[in-house]
């Protein structure tokens, strides 16, 4: 058996530390006589090195807070300096996300008014961390007294206990959709920068509620506007199908039940070259971002699963040169990304959301001490999450694109570009704020 005894040779071949001579007693000391223990004082079962509340590499966002705590929010680190920014830039999307908007959303009453407390001076970002806070003003922790001891079926109650051995029993804690306030606030910043920088637009809408499916081709992605999506409470740009979707939600709402649906998201004018080969492909980053949202169960990109029904000749997007000399594709089954890198076409994706887990119907479950019981959940919950998920999806897509834009600029545009193949990135247009860059 090989010995684990260390030799007594001088460390790094030197007998001096910081220019001082080591005493003769220490030099004569055999290292093999020193017992070194690598046993940690902390039991291994307690050595958990996982957080999960920070997203992004260059444009980093950390969210904080619980659904029935003092408040929620985010810290944005890496935001470029000298960008005009105020609470109003975030509040617009926070208002689209907030509860109590209509009869088909949770009746919880929150204004979700945000406050920036750092990172902005005289209306401009300073390049330092931006702290955004939104207080909770309509908490009803007592609504969750039964759920503190009994697990809600398909909710995160049980798995949070399994992971941490403790959890916030008032509402869903960090698993609540209220956590997404920080994402939406940060997404508002990212959306503004992307719009200033490249005219990039990110628009999401509801394309399915339960069995009501908006037919493909009904919505023109080239001309889709925010006003079309916001024209009704379900956020479907087609009025006829919007009414059908609202009726489907109403039908289960009055029964104390819930339904799921699909949110479609498009990106217009995305800069070319975003994303990296192999592990960090742009659609992979978008998938992770979208699937990190509460209640998500599926992600499709471009042609999605329908593309499996086509042959290569039917599915391929043929190239051509447009009147401006730009390389384009005649079709867009690739969804605006090829080889994991954006090609300048419209990026499109679809995200599936499950029915809300917390419902007003009796369900069989178990308690925290493993006794079987029945549960009728109280509290205020969305009968269908997809109308409020629209700004959440837009926010996560914006965070990915912002992060990838900064990575692209630092890696591929640090030195002069190959003008025959690469397009120059447009510098920020900040004339409105009289800020020079």
Automatic annotation (TrEMBL):
Its cofactor is FMNH2. One of its GO terms (cellular component) is cytosol. It catalyses: 5-O-(1-carboxyvinyl)-3-phosphoshikimate = chorismate + phosphate. Pfam families: Chorismate_synt (PF01264). Its EC number is 4.2.3.5. GO terms for molecular function: chorismate synthase activity; FMN binding. SUPFAM superfamilies: Chorismate synthase, AroC. Keywords: Amino-acid biosynthesis, Aromatic amino acid biosynthesis, Lyase. Reduced FMN (FMNH(2)). The keyword Lyase applies. GO terms for biological process: amino acid biosynthetic process; aromatic amino acid family biosynthetic process; chorismate biosynthetic process. InterPro entries: Chorismate_synth (IPR000453), Chorismate_synth_AroC_sf (IPR035904), Chorismate_synthase_CS (IPR020541). Pathway: Metabolic intermediate biosynthesis; chorismate biosynthesis; chorismate from D-erythrose 4-phosphate and phosphoenolpyruvate: step 7/7. HAMAP family: Chorismate_synth (MF_00300). Belongs to the chorismate synthase family. Catalyzes the last common step of the biosynthesis of aromatic amino acids, produced via the shikimic acid pathway. This is Chorismate synthase. It comes from Populus trichocarpa.
């Amino acid at each position: 058996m090989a010995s684990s005894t260390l030799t007594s040779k001088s460390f790094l071949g030197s007998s001096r530390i910081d220019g001082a001579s080591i005493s003769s007693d220490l030099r004569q000391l055999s290292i093999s006589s020193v017992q070194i223990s690598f046993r940690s004082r902390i039991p291994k079962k307690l050595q958990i090195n996982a957080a999960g509340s920070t997203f992004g590499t260059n444009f980093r966002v950390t969210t904080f807070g619980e659904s029935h705590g003092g408040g929620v929010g985010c810290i944005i680190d890496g935001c470029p300096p000298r960008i005009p920014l105020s609470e109003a830039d975030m509040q617009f999307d926070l208002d689209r996300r907030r509860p109590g908007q209509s009869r088909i959303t949770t009746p919880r009453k929150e204004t979700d008014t945000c406050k920036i407390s750092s990172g902005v001076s005289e209306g401009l970002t300073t390049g330092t961390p931006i702290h955004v806070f939104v207080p909770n003003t309509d908490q009803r922790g007592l609504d969750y007294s039964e759920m503190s001891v009994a697990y809600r079926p398909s909710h995160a109650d049980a798995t949070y206990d399994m992971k941490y051995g403790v959890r916030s029993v008032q509402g869903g804690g960090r698993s609540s959709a209220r956590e997404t306030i920080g994402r939406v606030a940060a997404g508002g910043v990212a959306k503004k920068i992307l719009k200033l920088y490249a005219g990039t637009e990110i628009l999401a809408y509801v394309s399915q509620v339960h069995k009501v499916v908006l037919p493909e081709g009904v919505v023109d992605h080239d001309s889709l506007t925010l006003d079309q999506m916001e024209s009704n409470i379900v956020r479907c740009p087609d009025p006829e199908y919007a009414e059908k979707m609202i009726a489907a939600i109403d039908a289960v709402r009055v029964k104390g039940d819930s339904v799921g649906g699909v949110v479609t998201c498009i990106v217009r004018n995305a800069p070319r070259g975003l994303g990296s080969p192999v592990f960090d492909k742009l659609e992979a980053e978008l998938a992770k971002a979208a699937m990190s949202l509460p209640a998500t169960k599926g992600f499709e990109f471009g042609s999605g699963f329908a593309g499996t029904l086509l042959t290569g000749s039917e599915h391929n997007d043929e190239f051509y040169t447009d009147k401006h000399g730009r390389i384009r594709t005649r079709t867009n089954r690739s969804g605006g990304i090829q080889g994991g890198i954006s090609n300048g076409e419209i990026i499109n994706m679809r995200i599936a959301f499950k029915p809300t887990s917390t419902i007003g119907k009796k369900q069989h479950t178990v308690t925290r001490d493993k006794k079987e019981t029945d549960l009728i959940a109280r509290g205020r919950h969305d009968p269908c999450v997809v109308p409020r998920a629209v700004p959440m999806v837009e926010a996560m897509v914006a965070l990915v694109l912002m992060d990838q834009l900064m990575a692209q600029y630092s890696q591929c545009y640090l030195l002069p570009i190959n003008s025959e193949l690469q397009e120059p990135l447009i510098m920020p247009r900040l004339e409105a704020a009289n800020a020079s860059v």
